[in-house]
Amino acid sequence: MPTVRGCNLPDDLLYDVDNHTWFTEVGDGTVKMGMTAIATAMAGQLVAFTPKKVGRKVQPGRSCATVESGKWVGPAKSAAGGEVVGVNEALLSNPSAANADPYASWLVQIQPDDWDNVKAGLTPGSDVAGPYEAKMASEGFEGCA
Asked: pTM (2 decimals)?
């Protein structure tokens, strides 16, 4: 598993480095999306999670959820467009679970419209260390504590 500045990045996931999100294929044609350890460390302790409702469409590059911490409120942007087919109900009542384990605490499950093209634009975990080191340096982020 790559580790960049103390932040774990499992190599079995696909990453949208620019938006600090990860994807994993579920096996039924859907994908789950979550926030990286870097995203949760930068945001701080999460206090609210408001996903799009099941059945709603997500446009590529647009928000599939809003997350809020004590110092930040913002969108979780999905590289994949499509229909939301599931939300992580556990995060609704305990958003900080994403801080404790960002890779078990997925945000939404999407039936993507054009997964093959989206997947081609994501960074495999085995190749993510270099791009993330550059991203963290450009954002002045010291790393995960």
From this structure: 0.96
In CATH, the number for domain 26-122 is 2.40.50.100
Q: How far apart are CA 78 and CA 135, in angstroms?
A: 18
pLDDT of residue 71: 85
CA dihedral defined by 38, 39, 45, 50, rounded to 10 degrees?
A: -160
Which residues neighbour 41 within 8 Å (Cβ) at sequence distance 6 or greater? Answer: 7, 141, 143, 144, 145
> Is there a contact between 24 and 12 (Cβ–Cβ < 8 Å)?
yes
Q: Tell me if 66 sits within 8 A of 73, measured CB to CB.
A: yes
Give the domain ranges of the chain: 26-122
In which region does residue 82 sit, left (phi positive, over 0), alpha (psi from -120 to 50) or beta (all else)?
left
Q: Tell me the pLDDT tens digit for each residue of 43-100.
A: 999 999 999 999 999 999 999 999 999 988 999 999 999 999 999 999 999 999 999 9
Give 10: exposed, middle or buried? Use CB within 10 Å, 0-12, 13-18, 19+: middle
Degrees, nearest 5: CA angle 110-112-113: 150
